[in-house]
Amino acid sequence: MKQKSNRVVVISVVLLSVVCIFAISVFAIYNKNGSGNKFYNNVIINGIDVGGMNISEASNVLETDFKANRDKLKISLKYMDKKWEYSYKDFEPIDDFSLEVGKVFNSISSNNMFERFLKKKQLNQNDGKIDISYRKLLGGFDKKLDIISDEIYTELIEPRVEFVPNEKNPFNYIEGQSEVVVDRQKLEELIDDAFKDNKNISITIPTVTTKPSITIDSLKSKTKLRSQFSTSYANSNGDRKSNIKTALSSFNGLVVFPEEEISFNQTTGARTKQNGYKPANIILNGVYVEGTGGGVCQASTTMYNAVLLANLEILEVNKHSMPAAYVPLGLDAMVSEGVSDLKFKNTTDEPIYIKTWCDKTCAYVQIYGLPFENGEYYKTRSEFVKSLPHSGDRVLQDTDGKYSNKVTFKGEYLRLKYPHEGYEANVYLEHYTKNGELIDESLIRHEVYLPQEGIIIEGTEDLYDGINLPKNDVKFISPQTTSQTNGNNVSGIINGKNAEKYNP
């Protein structure tokens, strides 16, 4: 049993020795000259056998061959209707071929026996053939490719919208362009492959095209009419109309980006003569008085209602002390520098575009942007709740003589303003389907316009003997006890008392 085991061991050792000798022999064959400074036998570079040569010898042979055949080099590169043609004379001579030859030598040799074996095996699979591209033997070739790449390069430009609010069609759509970049890696591969078989080559330059991420159609889909609103100022005087036009012109062409907030006062600027505003009636302490910029509140109210119908977020809005005749109760937007503002925010995912204009009778605001889904739309509804009775007239003595040119004596009266009943109103924003079916509604405002007392000024001096009071047409109005006002006639009553020409 022991002798049998010894016999197995001996056989195993002999077999292992044979395998090692065979492996060493194979490595020796594959690595012949590979560990020195000479090329393996049967190595062929650019069709020339450089086997057994060192780098310097191989470089000299290759350079001699290159110079003998360089007149045959013709290069034609094409892209669309452009063409670039070169001969060897268009390139710079290289001083030393040994640099490229050395790179080849290093790529197939190694001091490591096993690595050398693998490289030699791969080389044999290619029949020992190696190519150095003429691209690398022509000085400045890459620079010429750089120039060509720059000439072909086309910048990526996205399509864009040009907002021209004063045109009938307020949008121009400007076409973009694709980015075109030379596929440099592929181009070099094509050149190198072509040079393997021919010295007169013609290459169509490969490019990579990147199209814009958006289209004109998508831009058009984001610039639809979202809402519009108008108010009449047909009976206003020229200065008041001018102020409305001036205020709204500050918004004409305004583009509001997502989440951007807009202030009416900041957009219009100060209501001064320098900014184009003229004297017109404003409300001060419940009385219509002349002030610079009268009528601007009609501009802000027109804007406010358009913003509501566009379903944008209202950040600030305030009513007047008295109802405005140009909109239903609760839908006015009073603005006054440092006191009251109209503010709103674009809560859509795309920009909104504001167009405003005025004609002889009306002021208009249109808002464009993303359309509502499925043709849905919004409306506002003003609900009259009740009237609030006024307290009649109050008599004030002209103690400071402010009205002495109109009233002097006791019993002599001047009416400054009439008493007006007040109103309570609710305002709803209604959401409708394309077919006019109500989806939902929400209460957006509850407003109370306090009743206004009448103001009568009386003179302060006693009558002189022999002087009679002049005839006085001022009639005193008692506190209101009943009201005939209702939801059907409230608008007409307000229009009668607050004529357009007096509205702020």
For the secondary structure, the number of strands is: 25
Shape: rod-shaped
Estimate percent helicity.
Answer: 25-40%
Largest sheet properties? 4 strands, antiparallel
| CA distance, first residue to last residue | 125 Å
Q: What is the arithmetic mean of pLDDT?
A: 88
Number of spatially distinct domains: 2
Strand content: 25-35%
Q: Structural class of the helices, strands and pairings?
A: alpha+beta
Q: From the alpha-carbon coordinates, what is the Rg to the nearest angstrom?
A: 47 Å
Any low-confidence stretches, pLDDT <50, length ≥5? 26-35
Strand order, main sheet: write it out.
Answer: 11-19-18-12
Number of DSSP helical runs: 12
Name a few traits of the molecule.
12 helices, 504 residues, 3-stranded mixed sheet, alpha+beta, 4-stranded antiparallel sheet, 25 strands, 28% helix
